Amino acid sequence: NKRSGVEAMKITVVGTGYVGLVSGVCYAELGHSVICVDKDPLKVATLQNGEIPIYEPGLQELSVRNAELGRLRFTSSLGDSVKGADLIVIAVGTPPLPGGQANLAYIELAAQEIADAMEGRPVVAIKSTVPVGTNEKVRELIRERTDCPFDSVSLPEFLREGSAVSDTMHPDRIVIGTDSPRAEALLRELHAGLGCAFVVTDIRSAEMIKYASNAFLATKISFINEIANICEKVGADVTRVAEGMGRDKRIGASFLKAGIGYGGSCFPKDTQALIQIAGHVDYEFKLLRSVVEVNQDQRFNVIRKLETIFGGELSGRTVAVWGLAFKPDTDDVREAPAQEIIGELLARGVEVRAYDPIAMDNFRSQFGSGDGSVVWCGSALEAAAGSDAVCLLTEWSEFGETDLQRLRAVVREPVLIDGRNAFDEAALQGTDFIYYSVGRPSLA
Ligand code: NAD
């Protein structure tokens, strides 16, 4: 039961979504004995069958392998799974409430169920992104229900969907927020094999690190998007500007890709939540408010560009939408810009032909497949067939590699709006495509 000299731990992960499942599978890969619990029986049945309910490269192989080795189990019975655990990791969702605050109902429910079942002296870590002070509240909530001793840890997660396994196995740092040396030691041991830096802090600072990190990354994106908007007007090329900036180590090259803005289940909700957290202590986070506003507006540049090309009137036009996921290599469509862009196109009387390599089903179920005005297509070229414009909203690599001659042969009008700067401009020169990207000179 030992691997790399580290004693195998019994770990229960509560909530088997993007974060819980990846963490659980990776803990098993590190040699620990892991039970992943989820309330959703369908999800659990899928996992027990060796399938993965989400699209995440490399995850299925690892999951199946560790299940076969007897180190990884899936269950919907939280009570049984918690008994005897050395470490209980809460990774349930914290979706936004209508006002922007994080909804802590799932966290509280999970904490109650854990309190009613736990025994021994487990470490209880919250991996979900939660407002500052939540770990302490959860600690109180558990203490009210049980005399069983336990140690609390804030263990924020920084994985990116699409590269979640690699991010978890090769993290930049592990943040451990705790006031318990025993818990700190256990979590250092758990992650020892990863060879990464540890940042050990008090609980509140760890909770804040997560929000501050996401808010900072969102700020970089909105910043470069505003630079891109200015580049379009002054005739500069934002990709060269970003390269020139990014080579400065103080700035760094990542998150300087101009486009139609961020989406997904984290940045939109975590920025809103941090604005709320600040508001609760009478602090107006002006910078972050602007970041959110810029991001919200940026996606509509696609519509504005279409209007410029078609003289302001879009009604009756047919537009192909390439990409529905909020970013490539994931099937996650939560807060994807495509939702609002398609909604706006439909409201203007456009016929939308949509395609995504992986996220079609998720998008249809969220967007409402009953809406007859969207034609769901089986390939990028099928979506483009007969269209007056193709709008690229997610930079799946297959889109940038499109054979432009074949594309030209199927479209009605050669118009390409590239919301992610996925196309090589040089390849478009010499064609008759009208090409608008973000922050780069357009070809008309
Ligand atoms: P998710 O919605 O994919 O998964 C949450 C899972 O928890 C669901 O499967 C749900 O059925 C389950 N669940 C809810 N209550 C439960 C309970 N009482 N017992 C058992 N299972 C329960 O969410 P996610 O994307 O994995 O995010 C989880 C948390 O991690 C959030 O706070 C999120 O902000 C944070 N986070 C997410 C990412 C990401 O890229 N998705 C990255 C870093 C942090």
Automatic annotation (TrEMBL):
BP GO terms, sorted: polysaccharide biosynthetic process; UDP-glucuronate biosynthetic process
Organism: Paenibacillus pasadenensis
Entry-linked SMART domains: UDPG_MGDP_dh_C
Entry superkingdom: Bacteria
Protein name, as recorded: UDP-glucose 6-dehydrogenase
Coiled coil: none
Lineage: Bacteria, Bacillati, Bacillota, Bacilli, Bacillales
Protein residues bound to substrate: 158-161, 210, 255-259, 263, 327
Keywords, comma-separated and alphabetical: NAD, Oxidoreductase
Catalytic activity: UDP-alpha-D-glucose + 2 NAD(+) + H2O = UDP-alpha-D-glucuronate + 2 NADH + 3 H(+)
